[in-house]
Specification:
This protein has 370 residues and is an alpha+beta fold. Helix content is 64%, strand content 12%. Helix 2 runs parallel beside helix 6.
Length: 370
């Protein structure tokens, strides 16, 4: 999991000096501003639209589309799992051929990227299909056993429109696989980020604080304490980061001096905002906090010329800003005690219905008394 904001040069051993020993021209202030402004914009898009789609999904209450809920135990274990994964990748790159590892990873993310991008563009593409489009329904079903012991392994329903979206996404996938172009990388990265914000879900603020707190320590240790994070980010040829060239104005689409932002710095804060859906104040406050935190990361990195753990600045901002607003509004206890019920949980649904019935009975009783 890459979670550092940095501006390393592809294939370089140190900033400004490519691996072949030739000196790379320094980036212009305009190019740097364009690169980091674009990274900030690309980070905001999946957070905003992913949160909107998550809310619509929750309102639809379709059990097959409901987001997976992250528990407090999952949040506490996540930094440990991420650390083991990161260290494992680092050791693999040190012990084995980088070429073969990246080939396997490219094939893996090729499949995942196509599926994620297809799911992302499907709602937008539906608006462009004509009303008389011949849309047929399909079902992919794999079962195990027979008779009463038959068990469904895969049960996926799709239609002709989904197949068109899958075809378009496959074109991007082939482009990425053959060229590793930064635009194709970003299309997959944005799709992964939006799906991560939409499909993963935290149902209370405390879980979000545990997750952010653990990753706060994780990010600082692996960026400042070792060279593991930056090494993996440079070696890992997979769309797990958003990139934008700082020399785009000089070289156009063939530019190769990239600034990068790990997807973890988008998905994790984005999921922690998907709370208190009935109140927009905290979402917009956290949205402003993210802009502030990422902007501060870029500023510090530009001053010290060193890759920065973005969560070092994002976590205090994304927790501190909403808590400050809650203090002003006198809602701190309410904010931390708030827990959104899971529509997939029958107990939660029953409890919600009972509460609704009690409220209706109470209103009728008040009317009779009047």
């Amino acid at each position: 999991m890459d979670s550092a904001l940095s501006d390393p040069h592809n294939g370089s051993s140190e900033a400004g000096t490519p691996a072949n020993g030739t000196t790379r021209p320094p980036s212009t202030p305009e190019g740097i501003a364009l690169a980091y402004g674009s990274l900030l914009l690309m980070a905001l898009l999946p957070i905003f639209f992913g949160a909107l789609r998550s809310v619509r999904c929750a309102r639809g209450k379709s059990s097959s589309d409901m987001p997976e809920t992250i528990t407090s135990r999952d949040a506490a274990r996540f930094p440990i799992i991420a650390s083991c994964t990161l260290l494992g990748l680092y050791l693999f790159f040190k012990l084995f051929s980088q070429e073969y590892i990246n080939l396997l990873l490219s094939m893996y993310f090729f499949v995942l990227g196509i599926l994620a991008l297809s799911h992302t563009i499907s709602p937008f593409m539906n608006k462009f299909f004509p009303a008389n489009f011949p849309n047929r329904q399909y079902q992919l079903l794999f079962t195990q056993g027979s008779g009463e012991n038959k068990e469904e392994i895969i049960n996926y329903e799709f239609d002709t429109k989904d197949l068109v979206c899958l075809g378009l996404s496959s074109v991007v996938g082939v482009w990425y696989l053959l060229r590793k172009h930064w635009i194709a990388n970003n299309l997959f990265g944005l799709a992964f980020s939006l799906n991560g914000v939409e499909l993963l879900h935290l149902n209370n603020v405390s879980t979000g604080c545990i997750l952010l707190g653990g990753l706060f320590i994780y990010d600082i240790f692996w960026v400042f304490g070792t060279n593991v994070m930056v090494t993996v980010a440079k070696s890992f040829e997979a769309p797990i980061k958003l990139v934008f060239p700082q020399d785009l104005l000089e070289k156009g689409l063939e530019a190769d001096n990239f600034a990068m932002l790990g997807l973890g710095d988008i998905v994790i804060p984005g999921n922690c905002w998907d709370l208190k859906k009935n109140t927009h104040t905290y979402f917009y406050t956290s949205f402003a906090a993210y802009i502030f935190g990422l902007g501060l990361t870029i500023f510090i990195m530009h001053i010290f010329k060193h890759a920065q753990p973005a969560l070092l600045y994002l976590v205090p901002a994304c927790i501190g800003f909403p808590v400050l607003v809650a203090l002003v509004k006198g809602e701190v206890a309410e904010m931390f005690s708030y827990e959104e019920s899971n529509p997939k949980d029958p107990a939660a649904v029953t409890e919600s219905k009972e509460e609704s019935t009690e409220a209706s009975a109470s209103k009728r009783l008040e009317k009779k008394e009047k």
